[in-house]
């Protein structure tokens, strides 16, 4: 996927104020509006200009776009980095809605599908403050044990000169035992300030697990790929298995093969009905990096003259 440079599309500097971005958009929109423009490819140019303004004219979207842009190498294919949006605090449930408004694949990879022209009711004199949302990353161990964490959030806002800035704020949050990815924590009164006597909005934190090189999670179940030796697979063995909450002993049955899945009931994410931990066996061969090791493999070949691992494919 191609990374779209929205600043170049609008012809503005990355330090442009909100008003400068708006003026650039209006000028280009008049020039390339398909109803009046004689320019070549006016319709596609107009769509690009409108999309760029939708991203840069919104303070929250612009903050997210700028953050991703800092980590993207020029000329490289673009895929949103894992967890790129964790720690951004924004108003509304997400960056957009879910209708059929047309946007590029790049835009939707960052902001999802947008609700064109959606407007909420006009606020009253004592309206409640809007709710805020943010995604936070926690470790798998946090879910296993339940902890209190100090989290830092970045809040996009405009300064007095109209430049977009990020304000940091830190909150102490109780992570309950057994929480899963995709669930939300509600922090009452931590959203926008209400108008008049209206109450403040709430802050909703969506949980995401930080990447872990050992474990992968599916719902409340946890998976671990466990390397074992050929003799452990053939003869059986008792091996030590790491889990997010400490090590356990596992009996590998004789005659095991790679990709055999073994279930440790109730060792997944805790809950009233806890998940399971699945250990997926991976038979690893010793290296043949010495003459002696190679002789051992030659001896195995001589000991099993009729063994053909491809027999099933040749049938």
- Which CATH architecture of the largest domain? Sandwich
Query: If strands are numbered along the chain, what order do they take across the biggest sheet?
Result: 1-2-6-5
CATH superfamily of the largest domain: Urease metallochaperone UreE, N-terminal domain
Helix and strand element order:
HHHHEHEHEEEEEEHEEEEHH
Count up the domains: 3
Number of strands: 12
Q: What is the structural class?
A: alpha+beta
Architecture overview:
Residues 94-100 and 114-120 have low confidence and may be disordered. It is flat, with a radius of gyration of 28 Å. The relative contact order is 0.10. α2 runs antiparallel to α3. The chain folds into three domains: 1-57, Helix Hairpins (Orthogonal Bundle), CATH 1.10.287.110; 77-113 and 130-211, Sandwich (HSP40/DNAj peptide-binding domain), CATH 2.60.260; 215-302, HSP40/DNAj peptide-binding domain, CATH 2.60.260. With 315 residues, it is of the alpha+beta class. The strands form four sheets. The protein has a four-stranded mixed beta sheet. Strands 7-8-12-11 form a four-stranded mixed beta sheet. A two-stranded antiparallel sheet has the order 3-4. It has helices at 6-10, 18-32, 42-56, 59-70, 105-111, 140-145, 230-235, 291-303, 311-314; strands spanning 89-91, 132-138, 147-158, 164-175, 184-187, 203-209, 215-218, 221-228, 237-243, 246-252, 261-264, 277-283. The protein has nine helices and twelve strands. Helices cover 26% and strands 26% of the residues.
């Amino acid at each position: 996927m191609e990374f779209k440079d929205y600043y170049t599309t609008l012809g503005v500097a990355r330090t442009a104020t909100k008003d400068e971005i708006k003026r650039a958009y209006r000028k280009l929109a008049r020039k390339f509006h398909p109803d009046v423009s004689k320019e070549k490819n006016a319709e596609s140019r107009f769509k690009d200009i409108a999309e760029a303004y939708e991203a840069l004219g919104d303070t929250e979207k612009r903050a997210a776009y700028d953050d991703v842009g800092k980590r993207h190498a020029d000329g490289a294919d673009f895929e949103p980095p894992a967890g790129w949006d964790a720690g951004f605090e924004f108003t509304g449930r997400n960056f957009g809605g879910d209708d059929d408004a047309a946007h590029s694949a790049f835009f939707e990879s960052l902001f999802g599908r947008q609700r064109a022209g959606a407007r909420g009711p006009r606020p009253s004199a004592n309206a409640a403050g809007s709710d805020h949302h943010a995604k936070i990353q926690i470790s798998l161990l946090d879910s296993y044990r339940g902890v209190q964490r100090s989290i830092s959030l970045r809040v996009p806002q405009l300064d007095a000169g109209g430049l977009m800035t990020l304000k940091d704020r830190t909150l102490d949050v109780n992570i309950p035992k057994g929480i899963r990815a995709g669930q939300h924590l509600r922090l009452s009164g931590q959203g926008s300030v209400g108008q008049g006597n209206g109450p403040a909005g709430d802050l909703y934190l969506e949980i995401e697990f930080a990447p872990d090189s050992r474990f992968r999670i599916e719902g409340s179940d946890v998976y671990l790929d466990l390397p074992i030796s050929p003799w452990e697979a053939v003869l059986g063995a008792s091996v030590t298995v790491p889990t997010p909450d400490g090590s356990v002993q596992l009996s590998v049955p004789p005659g095991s093969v790679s990709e055999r899945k073994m279930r440790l009931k109730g060792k997944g994410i805790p809950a009233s009905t806890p998940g399971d931990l699945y250990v997926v066996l991976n038979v690893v061969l010793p290296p043949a990096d010495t003459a002696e090791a190679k002789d051992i493999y030659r001896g195995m070949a001589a000991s099993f003259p009729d063994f053909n691992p491809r027999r099933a494919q040749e049938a």
